[in-house]
Structure formats: C-alpha cells, structure tokens
Amino acid sequence: MALIGEADDDEIPQLSTGALDALKEFYGERDSRQRQFEDLKAQAEDDYDGSPLTMEAFTEDWNASQFWYSDATATALAEQLLEGASNDSCIAVVSAPSVFIQLKNIVNSGRYPARPQMHLLEYDERFAVFKKEFVLYDFEHPMRLPAELKGKFDRIICDPPFLSADCQTKAALTVRWLSKSWASPADARELQSARNLNPTGLRLIVCTGERMEPLITKLYGKAGTRTTSFNPEHSKGLSNEFRCYANFECREIPSMKLFESEKTLAFLDIGPLSFGHALVIPKYHGAKLTDIPDDQLSEVLHVTKKIATAVGAENYNILQNNGRAAHQEVDH
Fold first, then answer.
1. Which pLDDT tens digit goes with each residue over 252-299?
2. Which of 16, 240, 246, 279 has its CA 20 to 30 A from that of 318?
3. Which residue, of 194, 221, 246, is where some domain finishes?
4. Is 183 a residue whose pLDDT tops 80?
5. Strands across the sheet with 264-268, in order?
6. Could you tell me the residue range of the domain that residue 112 belongs to?
7. Which parts of the chain span the membrane according to its record (predicted)?
8. Do 70 and 197 reside in the same domain of the chain?
C-alpha cells in the first residue's frame, strides 16, 4: 500500500522528446542573447571599439509594445537624420532604439564626416549600456527630462510606443520640448530669405500606425510634417499598417512623383512654399552642379519648363543651391 502523497513513476508527467528539444533551444537562445548583452555592456564600460552593433542582444517585449525595425528600415531612417548634419547637430531618438543603433554604426563607419551629438530617449533601461547617450524616458511624463535637453535638438525621430491618442499627444509634447525650432527646413529657408537669418529648421520624422494619421497631422502640422510613401518594416512583422511622416524631402522618403525618365526625377516638395513647389533632380549622383556630367543635366530645364506650364505658373523662381553657405540641405 502506498502512503498518501506518493505517486507511481508512470503517473509523473513526462515531456516529449520534441518538447524537450524546443525547451533546450529556448534556453540556448536566451543564454546567447544574455552573453551578447553582457559583451555589449563590457564594450560600453571599456569604451566602444567601433565594431558594428546589432539589436540581437535586446529581445523585444511585446507587452511593452517593443517592435524593432528591420536593419534596412532603421538604416534608411538613420541616414535621413544624418543627411546634411554637422558636428554642431544634435539628434534625438525618441523610443526608436533600432534607429539609434544604426546611427552609431553609420557614424562609426566614417561614411559621414560629421559626428553629431546623439541621445536615445527610452523607457527600457537595458539601453543604459550607452551611458551618457541614454536618457530614461516615460511618455506618461513627457517633460520629465534633464533640463539641459530642452530646445537642444535640430533632428528628431519619434516612434510613440502605443497607438493611442494619449500616447501620441504626450510624445508630441516631448518632441516640441526637445526641439530647437518648430519650423520645417522649408519654413526656415523662407524666414532666412525674408529676414536675412541663418536657416535653423527642425528635421523631423515620426513613425506610427496609419490610423494615427489625422492626429499626427494635427500635432505636427505646424512643423510642416506630411505623410510620406515610405513604409517602415519591422524585423518580425507587424499586423498594424505603419506609416512614416516627415517635414523634409529626400529620396528614401519620397513625396508625389511628377516625372521620371532614365536621367531625371521630379516630385512635389513635402513642405511646399507655394502651389506647385517641385524638385527636379538628375538621377546621376553628385553633391554639386559641377559634379554632374553635362549629358546627365540635359533634361532638367526641359522638365522644369513643362512643370511650370502644367501648373499655370506665371511668376516663379528656379533655384539651385550648392554648398552649405548657399543653403544646400541634401548633398545631391
């Protein structure tokens, strides 16, 4: 007779071989990520050696609404924040750590000559391994931040963690508090022209769900933000339709295309100064006019004339800027 509480070995639940293998794989991946994280922490403590960083050490927490961008998306967004940046530029990354990782990779690669200041504002304290570049951020307290960050940044990307009006509005308060200016690059150029001032516009990117578009337009409209056709992709997919909003024009985050040929591309400016404001560019890459072969410029004036005729413009300007002193923002 067995005593109460005893059980036959046959009655003890047993995991199948497949379940055991899956469990071993799970713990193996967990331990691997932990080692990666510890290595990254050690690098930060010993001064970063410049080797490429990845998001693999930081597992997503879906309960905290963490969905990392794919490397391609994070890199494209990081490049737009770095375009035209100088050593005096300050970049704030609000709740988008995968973009911050790619910013560090690109800057350390030497692809861009400038080394702007960069800060990651993030709730997840694992990113504190980046020491002085990390700022603990909770959207519930949008302005509970170090005082020295107020009005500091001329380049900002924000990806609010939740698709709610409350979260989006509070994140917008944070962006406004951080911004050096609330004028788009186009508005800054207009102000510079009218008052003979240096343009200091905000370069802003906001990534969030498609259904937030009306609210985003309301919250960031005065900064010149518009919906782009760039679709951010996440490394593990996302059921919600995501959109990218920006207040400047670039090749990776395009606006409405007007004309395209083998040599030439024309599209509407994302922050138009007037009706029909368009950009007409050669596809051949050159930072300045003198860097582009004559045959690659052969269609530019012809296309410009066609657009001016199509919009019925009787009075118009044709501008072509070369170099920072001439207010060139994109090196193309």
1. 565 566 887 888 888 777 566 777 788 888 877 777 889 889 998 899
2. 246
3. 246
4. no
5. 257-260, 264-268, 278-282
6. 62-246
7. none
8. yes
